Amino acid sequence: MCGRYKICKPVSKTVDLVKTNIKVEDTDNYNAHPSQKLPVIRSYTNGKALELCEFGYTPNWSKKISKFSPLINARKETLMEKVTFKNLIQVSRCVVPADGYYEWKREEKNKIPYYFTKEDDEIMFFAAIHQNNQFCIITREATEKISKIHHREPLIINQSQINNYLNTKKDAMEILNSIKPPNLKFHAISKDVNNPVNNNPALIKSIN
After folding, report:
1. Distance between CA 67 and CA 80 in Å, rounded?
2. Cross-strand partners of 94
3. What does 64-85 look like in DSSP terms, one character per residue?
4. DSSP alpha helix (H) spans, the chain
5. pLDDT for position 207
6. Domain range list for the chain
7. Which of 12, 83, 154, 167 is deepest in the core (most CB within 10 A)?
8. CA 148, CA 35: separation in Å to the nearest integer?
9. Residue from 129, 37, 49 nearest 92 by CA
């Protein structure tokens, strides 16, 4: 699952990738979390735009269900099996810029948070789907290295593949299945990240 991540200076880091910035500020967010409006890249007929979408997707059918929790992740392996996601992956794709993400390792009754980044420290782009100004991050089975912490990881797109993925005339699943996961590094961090109110550079500091 991918439910928390870090994104700092999103405007500066994507200025060469998009044509338009729609009300996104160049702020630092060390604890991006569901229900927040966060920067995503979407494609329009006149070019790509960086804009804000709410993290967490609520399908129209869920309005009939009380206490429905918005969907923050969609499994790549079942995207085409579920009507909700199948329709979105065909026509409503976006990518989510991030510096790194958080995941928790379960150890008996304890959960230890870890911070993940690319080994080259470059920006990440999560494959995602969107609707009604909400988005949901696509995940894949974790690599052997990452599976030591968690069995899932976000599906990270190479910068060179962004245009292909956002082009709805192209087969999204063919593109996603062709993407090899990047090399990631990680380290244990403080449990302060557990509280979404906490938002500062100390959250990503290694405690090892």
Report:
1. 26
2. 128
3. GSTTPPPB-EEEGGGTTTSHHH
4. 10-14, 83-91, 162-166, 172-178
5. 93
6. 4-204
7. 154
8. 28
9. 129
